[in-house]
Each structure stands twice: as structure tokens, then as C-alpha cells.
User: Fold this.
Amino acid sequence: MDRRQKVELFEVIRRGYASGETIQGLSKKHGVHRRMVRQALGSATPPERKAVVREAPRLGPVKEHIDQMLASDVKAPRKQRHTAHRIWMRLCREHPDHLVGEATVRRYVQVRKRELGLSGREVFVPQSYELGQEAQVDWFEGMAKLGGEVVKLQFFAMRSMGSGDAFHRAYPHATQQALLEAHEHAFDYFGGVFKTLRYDNMKSVVKKILRGYQRVETDRIIAFRSHWGYLSEYCNPASGNEKGGVEGELGWFRRNLLVPVPEAGDLTALNQQVLADCVANRGRTIIGRSMTIGAASELEREHLLPLAAEGFPIHELLYPLIVDGKGRVKVKTNWYSTSLWPGLRVMASVGPLNVKIVHDNKVAAQHPRCYGRGHEILDLEHYLDVLERKPGAMKGSTPLQQWRQAGRWPACMDAMWRELEQRHGKSKGTREMIALVRAGSSDGLDKLIVAVKDALRLGISDAAAVMHLLRMPDPEQRRQCAVALAEELQQYERPMPVMDNYDLLLTNTTGAIQ
Assistant:
């Protein structure tokens, strides 16, 4: 009988004894021993059942061997210690005369590991935070589909420990520039700066780990922290529990907002989606709290440090760099094209997503940043002046090939190029095509492609006609212009004159002048 049935039985026995029934009669009536009747009369709560200590005849002979294995694990590396399954396998091989079940070994090993301090399970103390006191920062890896291609991205996360609000942003790589830029976006999102930011020991922040919580930080992070006025704290190595708030936030974000795999046209569109998800998350209420995340975040703004008047110079400046004979500048491990003359000294401004080539305080070229090694990032527009002098080099040029791979040079451009060559010859036809590309660089390459398609549809193979189509207003603009012109001319509208009286002079009357 279970405990509830026993409690009910004790109640019935006590009521029967109070009504005058004897102990022996109650024993016969309920089919129990007189000792249980006396227990019920002594206390309404049945006594706890004593645990029976059973002997382990099979486990006993091997207990000493198990203890020796576990004792050797005390000084062994954490990831090279015995598991219960490994201990059972060794017992089967080394002591075949004393076979014991694996479940029995597991129960014994669990108890002994806890006694020896080898158990991986720890007890953590819940923490409480004031509004604006602390935020935790971390990176995590995720997949997204950009432009139809699945790519691996690094997601930045900053979580407020007071309100529970969190900010996320995606980057191709977790570089130092990306980290600093993400911080500034997060400060704008929260409306202020937290008094303390807690990090793990990421390389972009910590150069060397010293004893305790002391760290040798990078120069850039020290200057960035001084600029924004917050304090930084660091976790012990391999102690993710010390920033459990952001660790839990990463898991929630991955499960709820990255499933299924998000899709976007490019990284900018994806980050807009991520920001919208962060704002929508403010409507959620965390378990154990009385207000929504958004309401708590609004209260927290009053406790945050004010934003700096200007942003921190995040971009890394590299100077001097030399333009080589191919019109390229080597920035870190890759080459980027520019329209400057070879031999000039230039400066590169390296950001998390782009690279700018600067000469005489003017941006001479701008490219998306490449994180590979030994790659060439070339723009055809930077070589137009050279190609006008050397038109034969255009057909096999690497910049043109990269434009084709990027979808910036569709088949219609090649069709127009062939038409121009048939009409003017190869050299002059190529120069005419270069003139069209130059016009597209100023008016827009997409508009040039549309104009080329229209010219091919109309059977036109003249560069001047294509430029006319390029710069001609579209039908909607022409319609709006016609409507505006009609409204302006309406004030000059006059009725047509009536000529009936003059027609009388033309009648065939006597003496009338014909």
C-alpha cells in the first residue's frame, strides 16, 4: 500500500478506536497486524519506511579497483578522466571473474565522484542586478541565406542584466573593428552606456591573462572604453557561467530567431531584420518578472551613462601604402584596385565591412572588405582611363571577369559590345563600349543595363543613341512632366474666336468686293 492509502487507513483506525472498538477487533477488521494499529493510535502520520541496506555481493569485490581508478582521476586532465562506462569496460577486461552490471557500476561511480569532488555538476548562486548596472557581451556563430547562398556569420550580442533587453548584429567575421562598431550600435539601441560591461577573454580585447581577474588589454579597447566611460570586467577562463545572462540569451535568440535559417538580400537587410526582431522581443515578459522587457528598458534609460558626443574612430588606418603597377594597393593580405597612378603613397581605412583608399584626404576607391588571403578585389571603373588607351586589354581583363561573376555585366552588355565592334571595328567599338560604361558609372549601372536592353530591342547599335535612352526620363516621369506642364499652361487658355460675321463678307452680294 502506498503512503496515501496508509494515511487514510490510520484515520479510519483512529476513528474506530475512538468509537469504542478494541485493538484486536480493529486488527481483524482491517486485516493488519496489531503493531500497525498501535502505530496508528500513537500518531496520525505513518512512520517513514526504513531503507533496507542490501549487500552487493558482485560489486563488493571490485569496489577497491573502482576507487583506485577514481583516485587517479583527481590529478588527471579534466577531459581525460574515467567515465562510468569506461570503468565498467575495464572491470570486464581486467576482472572477468567478478562480472557486474553496468547500471550497478554507474550508481556507485556517481556517488563516489560526488564524494571525491569529481562530479561536473555545480551549484550556482542566483544574482540580482540593478538597472543600468551591467551588460554582458559575447559572439556566437550562426548561418543565414544571403542572396540565395548560405553563409556562416558571427552574431554580436549585448544583454542588459537589469532589464533583460538584448541587442544583436551580424558580421562576416568577429574582428576588433566589428566588435567596436557593434558596441556603438548597441549603445544607440539601449539609449545610453552601461556602467560595467562583462566579457570573456576574446583575443580582440585581451592580450594576456594574468593571475586572478587581471588582464593585459589591447590598446584600442582601452581607448574605446575611455571614450565611452564604462568599466570592463572579465570572466575566468572556461567559465561561461560567470556571464550566464548573455549565454542564455544566445541560446534563446538562436532557437527562436534563427530557426528556420533567415533569408535576406544582403547583410544590411539581414541586420535590419535582426534589429526588428530585437525591438519585437521587448514585448516579451521574462519568467519571474512583473513588467515587459520594453517597459524595464524604458526605466533603465534613466540609469545609463550618457552617450558620447562623437563616435570613436573605429576604422584602422594603414599608412603608407604604395599603388603598384597594376593600379592595386595591398591592404593587409589582399589587393584592392584604385584609379590612382602607380607609385603614389596612399592610406587605407579598414572597417569591418569595407576598405577605403584615401589620397590627399579624398576617398579614391572603396571596396567591400575581403577576409581571405591573396585575393584581388578589382573594379572595372578604375581601369577605364587605361583601357581607352589599350582597348585590346579589356576583353580578357580580370576586373571585367569579376564584374561578370558578380552579375554586374549581363549578357546584354556583351551583345551591345559585339554590335559596336561590327559597326566601328574592334578598337573603336571597344572605346564606344568603354564610353557607355563611363556614362553608367555616373548615371547608374542599372539604368545603363536597362537602356542597353531597350536599344537592342529597338535594333539600335549606336553609343550616342544608348546614352540618349539612358538619360531620357522614364515613362512615369514624362507623364508627370506632361501633367505639370498642362497645369501651368491652363492659365493661358483662351476661347476660340467666332468668325461668323466675317463669313458674311464672303457672300455673293451686289457691289461686294470679292
